[in-house]
Amino acid sequence: MGEQPTETTPTTETGVKKIQKGVKKSVEKNTPVKKQGYSTDDFYFESGQEGIILKHKVKTDFSQRLSDQPIESAEITGGILVFQEKNGLQAQQIFNLEEIISSWK
Question: Of 9, 60, 73, 105, whose CB is crowded by the most CB atoms within 10 A?
């Protein structure tokens, strides 16, 4: 429990484009997507030995646990969250943050 929460900011990474073929052009250009007054730039995560939790700076009541396993690496790039669990049993987990915003009512 001594680990500090991790927060990342979007950066350019060409590998995300190859992984997410269907992502809209605005995400490919690494610009924030705004829907329903919320932006993909406002997502952040807390990760460590207890797993990873996705949160939103504006919609503060949003909190979604994506994994209970220790996290090796995680990054938000161009509206896409990519993380790898330390156990290495699963491939990278990928979440399109625009789709999460679209699901909010």
Answer: 73
